[in-house]
Design brief:
Helix content: 40-55%
CATH superfamily of the largest domain: Metalloenzyme, LuxS/M16 peptidase-like
CATH topology of the largest domain: Cytochrome Bc1 Complex, Chain A, domain 1
CATH architecture of the largest domain: 2-Layer Sandwich
Number of domains: 2
Number of strands: 11
Shape: globular
Strand content: 15-25%
Structural class: alpha+beta
CATH class of the largest domain: Alpha Beta
């Protein structure tokens, strides 16, 4: 899980980065060249995006399925992530474990991930090996073999992963509790991606096969190929390997249009393993697809100028000038099918109290809500976001994640292309309006992570 302070930057990059030219009124803003992207859709519904690049003789294949943990129901959590593990158990053509070994033997690397809204599988390998990894990825889209024995064995791996990443990490346990309070108990975004332990323990072979058959289909997936190749070459390979796979009926995806009904809430986790206390406050916020979506771009600018860097308002006031915190941040990611959150956090300085932190944060929020923001600081935040978008084009990994996230959460390639222009058009008044919309007491959860002896 990324540090909260990095999330604003990540949200902007995942939203997209690619549009050239700015209007004369925006002459001081950076221009982001449109990423060279070609798209096509196979007759079976598989969407494909090709991002050619000659920087190195390598390619990355990413296949993203439009299904994640938020598509599960209470009492049946953890299946999406568990299935991610089981996808490496092999087919008739590729025995269990051989997928990754084959990639490694050919000088490449591979991995996978599960989020609330999507599940992705990716490989980076020499360009001439693209056909190899595409053949194997297409094979496991429909031919994975599940056995009861492997489900039982892998269940222990997943439970150990939960123990390592969640149960042994106090901040992760607190974050789990906060999400449940913010989005509502037993609601899609209120349940952990990895699942609850009791649910993981009872996932059976039939559950796994059923989930696989319902969601793993070409018309429920996006293929992204980035690197040293051409659109024509990718299309021919995709038609050869993915093209013969039949599409299936896929149920519409649904997300709640509201969060928990008993906000505001406060929660504290005291744990002797905590070395550095953390105070945070999270508000329900609109995403690109849910809520007052018109605020999504202004909220990205707000996040950046208020707490997105060491030049931000929050950092300067609490860390540099007030010495109240060791660090401070704000973060927001709009790439979600449902509602998302706007987060503010502070690591308190030694001997400073929670009351002092809350007072200092509240003062900075009030200053922004009452006095607005200047055109200069909005422009500075916009340029920071646009610069990050420019840098992202140097990365072979960023392109597939940007397009995969966008297309699996209801956005389009056109939205990706338009992101820099939309960020450039945000005004100071829109930033203030976005803050007024989100920073409401009846939409927040305040959380405190503290050593066992607690904080005052």
């Amino acid at each position: 899980m990324p540090h909260p302070g990095r999330r604003a930057l990540l949200g902007g990059l995942l939203a997209g980065a690619a549009f050239s030219g700015s209007t004369p009124a925006l002459a001081k803003l950076f221009a982001v060249e449109r990423r060279n992207a070609e798209t096509f859709t196979l007759p079976n519904g598989l969407q494909a995006v090709v991002l050619p690049s000659k920087r190195a003789p390598i390619v990355t294949q990413m296949l993203v399925y439009k299904v994640g943990s938020a598509d599960e129901t209470y009492g049946h959590t953890g299946i999406a992530h568990f299935l991610e593990h089981m996808m490496f158990k092999g087919t008739e053509r590729v025995p269990s474990g051989e997928f990754s070994r084959t990639v490694s033997r050919n000088g490449g690397r591979d991995n996978a991930y599960t989020t609330f809204d999507s599940t992705g599988y990716y490989q980076t390998i020499a360009a001439e090996r693209l056909e190899l990894v595409m053949r194997m990825e297409a094979d496991r889209m429909t031919n994975v073999r599940f056995t009861e024995r492997e489900v039982v064995t892998e269940r222990q791996v997943v439970l150990e992963e939960r123990r390592t990443r969640i149960e042994n990490v106090p901040s992760a346990l607190l974050d789990e509790a906060v999400r449940e309070q913010l989005y509502g108990r037993h609601k899609p975004y209120g349940m952990p991606v990895i699942g609850y332990p009791d649910d993981i323990k009872k996932i059976g072979l039939n559950d796994m096969v059923g989930f696989y058959r319902r969601h793993y289909a070409p018309n429920n997936a996006v293929l992204i190929i980035a690197g040293d190749t051409t659109p024509d070459a990718v299309r021919k390979l995709a038609e050869k390997y993915y093209g013969p796979i039949a599409n299936r009926r896929v149920e519409p995806r649904r997300r709640p249009s509201h969060g928990a009904t008993d906000l505001p809430q406060k929660t504290t986790r005291a744990d002797p393993r905590v070395v550095e206390p953390r105070w945070s406050r999270l508000w329900l916020a609109p995403s690109y697809k849910m809520g007052e979506t018109r605020h999504a771009y202004a909220l990205q600018v707000l996040s950046r100028l208020f707490g997105g860097s060491e030049t931000s308002r929050l950092w300067r006031a609490l860390v540099v000038d007030g010495k109240v915190g060791l660090s401070a941040w704000a973060s927001y990611s709009p790439s979600s099918l449902g509602l998302t959150s706007f987060d503010i956090g502070v690591h308190p300085a030694p001997s400073r109290t929670v009351a002092e932190v809350e007072s200092a944060v509240g003062d900075q929020m009030k200053r922004l809500l009452d006095g607005g923001v200047t055109a200069e600081e909005v422009e500075r935040a916009q340029n920071q976001l646009l610069a990050a978008a420019i840098y992202s084009q140097d990365s072979l990994a960023s392109g597939p994640r940007i397009y995969g996230t966008a297309l699996s959460t209801g956005s389009t390639v056109a939205d990706v292309d338009a992101w820099p222009q939309r960020i450039s058009e945000v005004t100071p008044a829109q930033v203030q309006a976005a803050a007024q919309h989100v920073w409401r007491e009846d939409g927040a959860v305040t959380a405190l992570l503290t050593p066992a002896e607690g904080m005052r």
